[in-house]
From TrEMBL:
InterPro entries: MFS, MFS_dom, MFS_trans_sf, Proton-linked_MCT. The keyword Transmembrane helix applies. The keyword Membrane applies. The chain crosses the membrane at residues 15-32, 37-54, 60-81, 88-107, 113-135, 147-166, 178-198, 235-257, 269-293, 300-320, 326-346, 358-376, 388-409. It holds the Pfam family MFS_1. GO terms for molecular function: transmembrane transporter activity. This is MFS transporter. Residues 22-414 form the Major facilitator superfamily (MFS) profile domain. Keywords: Membrane, Transmembrane, Transmembrane helix.
Length: 416
């Protein structure tokens, strides 16, 4: 792939830090990422199952299978990210997402749906995550928290906008037009900015990360761990344990939250407003993390996020009114927003930029498997007992253990 259209001598002379242009590219690619998100797929479930007679389980299986495949490819992509940078990975990710979702408008069988959606979902779960946060962490150190919160917020805006875009297109031409609209939007928003302007590292254009341009306090000494060295530290395995504990909670509760609320007496419309409030609180937490003082140890904030996650999960057990539903769904949303923003920061702060892709690739494989396990566990317990109480107790317990794991996850020594 040819180099970006960014003159090497021009960048250092710009009146602002070029990292902000990189962050804008990351935000646009993150918006485009949500084409194969569960929220986007949800608007296609009814028209596609009506058209082909598929079961809901058959469609949902494509989501889990895509995540499992991402667990295998992520450790392979990580070293490529470290050598080549995020531009190649994100360009291919946006291109793959756009073309695959557009091609979904042509499916005539469950097999063709699986081939296309599983591919798109694999890109969503693996390459996108590595590319987005790999690029961000290469450019931002002093303002890493704020940059991460902005990037996460941009992804959530895509999660809100793309289902609406699909629904509007479907009103005129059915579900096939909806997939065309999703793919076209992803390509239009995400591809060109990344291809033209994304630069691998600030050092490639004669700059340094933003710790210098921030101008506040002494220069931070960054850790420089290889993947092998990182995996010999206690912090690596404690962060991995935290990941494995929180993501079944995130996926398991999110997917089954609306059915649980309806079973507890809320109307479908009321349950939908609770889900919207949960999403809004996730966005609030994601953005708010960026304004926390960088001197605060991340492990304390990560532990607090897990506590909020567990409190909201356990509180949902006995909800019977719209007010209590808002309260505990809001707490759960705050926890999710914190987790989604803090974990990429923690991996970069603890182990540095040099081998971020290789290190994060291993952890990401654990994350996507944990995400796939949550909905399955919740569904099995629901079918066995007739309610979601058992699964909510399980998920609340996992969140409590995650809070402890976070507290124990101290930064490793700078010299491994």
């Amino acid at each position: 792939m040819r180099p970006p259209l960014v003159p090497r001598l021009l960048v250092p002379r710009l009146p602002f830090f070029y990292g902000w242009i990189v962050l804008a590219c990351i935000c646009l690619a993150g918006f485009a990422r949500q084409g194969p998100a569960v929220a986007t797929l949800s608007v296609f479930v009814v028209p596609m199952t009506d058209a082909f007679g598929w079961s809901r389980t058959e469609m949902a299986g494509a989501v889990s299978l895509g995540g499992v495949l991402a667990a295998f490819v992520s450790p392979l992509i990580g070293p490529v990210l470290d050598r080549r940078g995020a531009r190649l990975i994100l360009c291919l990710a946006v291109l793959g997402t756009g073309l695959a979702t557009m091609a979904l408008s042509l499916v005539q069988s469950l097999l063709s749906f699986y081939l296309l959606f599983v591919f798109a979902r694999m890109i969503w779960a693996g390459p996108y995550d590595l590319g987005l946060y790999g690029a961000l962490n290469n450019w931002f150190v002093a303002r890493r928290a704020r940059a991460t919160s902005i990037a996460t917020l941009a992804q959530m805006s895509g999660l809100v906008a793309l289902p609406i875009i699909a629904q509007l297109a479907m009103q005129d031409g059915g579900w096939r037009h909806g997939w065309v609209a999703i793919g076209t939007t992803a390509l239009a928003v995400g591809f060109l900015p990344v291809w033209l302007f994304l630069v691998r590292r600030p050092e490639d254009v004669g700059l340094v990360p933003d710790r210098i341009t921030a101008g506040a306090g002494p220069t931070v000494v960054e850790p420089r761990f290889t993947r092998a060295a990182a995996m010999r530290t206690q912090a690596f395995w404690l962060l991995s344990l935290y990941t494995v504990l929180v993501f079944p909670v995130q996926a398991g509760v999110s997917l089954h939250q609306a059915p649980h609320l309806i079973e507890n007496g809320l109307s479908p419309i009321a349950a939908a407003t609770v889900i919207s409030f949960f999403s809004a609180m996730s966005a609030v937490a994601s953005f708010g993390v960026g304004f926390l003082p960088r001197r605060w140890p991340l492990r304390y904030v990560m532990s607090l996020a897990a506590v909020l996650l567990g409190t909201g999960t356990l509180g949902l057990i006995g909800v019977g009114s719209i007010e209590t539903s808002y309260l505990f769904a809001g707490l759960f949303g705050l926890g999710i927003g914190g987790v989604m923003t803090l974990l990429p920061m923690a991996w970069a702060d603890y182990f540095g930029r040099e081998s971020y892709g290789a290190i994060r690739g291993v952890a990401l494989s654990l994350q996507v498997i944990a995400q796939a396990a949550g909905p399955i566990a919740s569904g099995v317990l629901r079918d066995a007992s007739g309610n979601y109480t058992g699964s909510l107790i399980l998920f609340g317990s996992l969140a409590a253990l995650a809070a402890v794991a976070a507290l124990l996850a101290r930064r490793p020594h700078l010299t491994p």
